[in-house]
Each structure stands twice: as C-alpha cells, then as structure tokens.
Amino acid sequence: MPQQSGYATIEINLRESAQLFNTLDPFPFRERDLSAEAEKYIVEWARELPENRPLQILIHLPPEQAASESAPELAAAVNGWFDGRAREERQAMRALFRDGRIGFLLGFAALAFCLFLSWSIGQRFEGAFPRTLQESLIIIGWVVIWRPAEIFLYDWMPIARRKRLYQRLSEAQVAIRARPPSAAIAR
User: What is the pTM of this model?
Assistant: First the structure.
C-alpha cells in the first residue's frame, strides 16, 4: 500500500459505496454494518502496516458516487464501525478479567482445600496409597488454579492487540477519491 503524507494507507477500489456494507442491514450509512469481506480486507491490511504511523483508508469510487452527498458519511460509518469493534473488545477484556478474578478466588479456595486435605492425610496415614493420594490432591489443587492463571498471563493479550488495532482503525483518516475510469475494481 502506498504511504502518503505520514500515513500508512489502505486503499479500496469499489464499484459502488454499497459494497462496503452488509446488504441485509437496512440502516443508513452512518449506522450500517461493514460487510464481513470489507472488514476482513481492512483489518488484514492494517495488521501489516507499521504500528507507529497513523492509518489512512482511501476509498476509490466512481466519480458520480465520490461526489455524492452521502460520500462524507462513509468516513463516519467506517470509523464508527471500528469504534464499535474496539468497544466490544474492551467489554470482552473486562468480562475476561472478571471471570479470571472469580475463577482465581474459586481456584485459590480449591487449592487451599486440597493442600489442607493433603496435609491432613500426611499427618494421619503412612504408606504408598496415602502418599499417592496426597500428591494427587496437590496436583488437583494446582490444576484447578491453572485456568485463572492462564487468563491473567496469556488470554488477555490477543484481545488487547485486537482492541488496539480497532482503535487505530476508528481513528483512521478516511478519504473518498474519484477513481479514474480505467482503474481496477474490487469484486
């Protein structure tokens, strides 16, 4: 993608502005959902562009559509869509951490119970079977707490990465340009 005036640019060539949107969505441009194909195209290109540069989405339309009154609404619709996606990722992150906190409290209680039970068995009984039961309870206790630990260590990272990307896209400069008649058209 060409780089213009400090922006990392994503270019889209369309036959008509409606290609950008979900055809089943009856709302006007500003409230409409982007089509899955358009979102995927924009997101995939944005992932490949440098993170330290602001994004620009350059939409090429036929001259009559680029000059229409609804063309400026395309920018608001694209930015609004990605702002909504960033909000969804923030909510997903909050829900994940809430689930992690609840899971950690339950897991910690289960770990404490298993360790206490293991210690009690060790105090009262001798032999191979009680020792095996002790070790099994310790393992079970740590396994119970692993999933909450995994949430806080690893699971939040992809959500945070998507949230940052959608936030960048929501702040992207969206420009509408008239496409020269001989330019290739997206299908």
Answer: 0.79
